[in-house]
Amino acid sequence: MSEQDGRTPALAFKGVDTHYGAAHILKDVDLEIYEGEMVCLLGGNASGKTTTLKAILGMVEPTRGMVYIDGQPVNGWTTAERVKAGISMVPENRRLFKRMTVKENLEIGTYLRDDEENFEADLEHIFELFPRVKERLSQKAGTLSGGEQQMVAVGRALMAKPKVLLMDEPSMGLAPVLVAQNFDIIDQINRAGTTVFMVEQNANMALSIADRGYVLQTGQIVLSDTAQGLLNNPQMRSAYLGEA
Amino acid sequence: MTTVTTSPPRTASERSPVDRAVMRRVLRVGVLAGGVMVYTAAIGMFQTFNDKEIIDPILSLSYLVLFAIPAVAGASFSKRVAIEGIETEPLSTLDIAKAAIAGAIAGVVVALFALLVDLFPDLRGTFPKLGPQMVRLLTLEYSVASGFIVLPAISAVAAGAGAAFAWIPERIRRPLLLAGASIPVLSMFEPLVDDLFDEIPAITDFLYSPAGALTITSSIVVALVVAGVSYYLRQRDPIIKKRLSQSADVSVRRRTTIVLAIIAILAFVVLPQFLGGIMNELLTNVGLFALMALGLNVVLGFAGLLDLGYVAFFAVGAYTTGVLTSPLSPTWDPVLSWWFAFPAVVVAAVLAGLMVGTPVLRMRGDYLAIVTLGFGEIVRILLLSDWLSPYFGGAQGIRSIPGIPVAGTQVNATSPELMIYAVLVFVFIAVYVSWRLEDSRIGRAWAALREDEDVAEAVGVDTVKAKLLAFVTGAVIASFAGALFAAKVGTVFTNSFQILVSIIILVIVIVGGMGSLPGVVVGALVLIGILGGPNQPGLLQEFGEFKLLIYGALLVYMMLKRPEGLLPSVRRQRELHQDEFLQDAWLDKGEGDEPQSPGPSVAEPGGQA
Predict the structure, then answer these.
(1) CB count, 10 Å around CB of B501?
(2) Surface of A (186-225) touching B: CB under 8 A
(3) Where do the structural domains in chain B lie, given as residue ranges?
(4) Which domains does chain A show, CATH number per domain?
(5) B354–chain A Cβ distance below 8 A for any pair
(6) Rounded to an integer, what is the distance from CA B213 to the centroid of its chain?
(7) Cβ–Cβ < 8 Å for B572, B515
(8) Residues B389-437: tens digit of each pLDDT
(9) Contact A107 B575 (CB under 8 A)
């Protein structure tokens, strides 16, 4: 899938640098995510994974370099404008609006869409993916189990009908069986046509479903290959995949 | 019920840790209640309330309040917390005994206090409210020594009665409580009733003694009528309940809301016709505060932005109106009518909203509250400063502001029966706008903002726009109140825009129910109408001196017991009581198996040694 000649990436970074005050976080980062792909960004703590997502959404502005959505430079765009352009995120730890009902959470997801009349149909689509969500519709989101919350968080992001779905650490804080289930869902969403860009520490799991992966180390991309390539890469195996 | 009187079996010695804990609790409650009683006397509330009779020759407000304290304390002994559907312990006669002992302790505390004041008359130098008159009232006109018998006795009876109240079957308890409450309420609201039945003196003559309190006969009649009506309605309760539960259906509920709203509107439109000047003046103040509270409700209740300097927007509205319409305005020559000044007021409010909103965009929670608190004071101090005094009149303010010209007359404080309508119109506008906004896209954005600002941004809510819009909407609604206030009073000066106004509006919103429109209006009615605003008297002028104390106590009580407010919004209620709902869900499952045994045996720590 790495051959993408002539196609415009759905999401791209070109030489992006970011700073938090004096701290240099991302250093000359290049990324290209093409439509329909599932790409994962791997890296340890403090490697700049979350900053990358923030730079995509415009919560952090690059000090150098360009961010593109559908080939369009979006530097200086507000978060809302970027969401409108088709980026949607499932935040780390799900971060639902805990005191609102599940239904209200899903409604917020459609906030920037103009076609409110399609709400019910989209809701049905979410129910197909997650039948459990339908049972919980009028329940307060904070009372759901971790796995159910993850479903609602993904549902909320999908209600925005994104072109690219960003996932921040989808495995975090979930029981192993739920992690596996969760990755199945992500895989399913991707197969249904949504481009997925996932930030993850659990490299094994992420690479098992992703097409390609980038490895981020102290703000720099140190490796970039197909998922299979990364899984077989000796350097990768020793550093991230838990093999001596 | 009657079979469950046996106390849990004891296996260990009589002085088990459980007993000691019970004794400690009795002592604690007793001393606490006594302390509260002493406090009411020490601040002079007790003495002031003595001037107000409730039932003419036999009961005054002072004793009602004083002995209500041990009664409430006593009731706490028969309170049962049902944890997961299991009552911890059945009610027993022991509870009444415990309550009575606690009441007696409270009485002793009060008697000791009276003795103390009697022995040390010098205390008066420090505490001006303490003195022989207070001692005499506190000991019910008996001697200080006999106070040690009388006070504990009455307190014990009151506390015991408070505890015994829980024994009365539910269907009788409610009418009894209502009947009991109706007497002081009717007595306290004498001015209102008097005003309402101005034309029918027979009613007021029957109800009230010349001192303006119920007589013994009339209070008995009132209690019987209220109890009877309440009992009858309770029999019909299942029908009403059924109707209400059907209204879980959204469209029916919506229709009910609309019908209720129309009834409320009609009541508000017709009522001022029957009220005299004083009542209309009072309702006008209620309306002005309701208007401001509705505005703050948008900022705080909808968008979750805690603005403690909200009075600034009220000031902007009032001063803009003053400057533009007063012939004595220091800087502005052409005298505009209120109507032509009004658009300028709105523009000024929008600008003020943006001015306050923009710098605090990045601030959250506590920081936002502190900065807005500062803004509120800055506006007032600037108006007083040498710099702005030439434009806004400084401490003298702006005088001779004309009323609202309507059909050839000036509507202002001299015509409260017209002013009330002007205020009502704007209250309705504010209610309607808030109602429409809450369900709108921006309302949803506000809710998301309130819940989690970061995520709201990530799902595409333009947080800058949403926040500014909340500030501006709130500012405009407050400026309506300001413009009406200026026209009504005719003078604006900085004294009317103290920080206390911001705080009181905040209390209205919190007590009424954040985010709930009926709640906010009811909050204003209860607080401003009954207790009074910072400079405005309320219905109960006896409370005037202790208004702020009661505000504070009410706020603390609401935060502890009913944080969602008097009439909560659906969402807020869910936020704060979800756990109880879950408990109820659990209860529903276990339905059918009644607790037959005399209560599950209570844990006996250390019992099986």
Answers:
(1) 22
(2) none
(3) 17-167, 176-235, 246-274, 277-506
(4) 6-86+162-244 (3.40.50.300), 96-161 (no CATH)
(5) no
(6) 24
(7) yes
(8) 888 888 888 888 888 888 878 888 888 888 999 999 999 999 999 999 9
(9) no
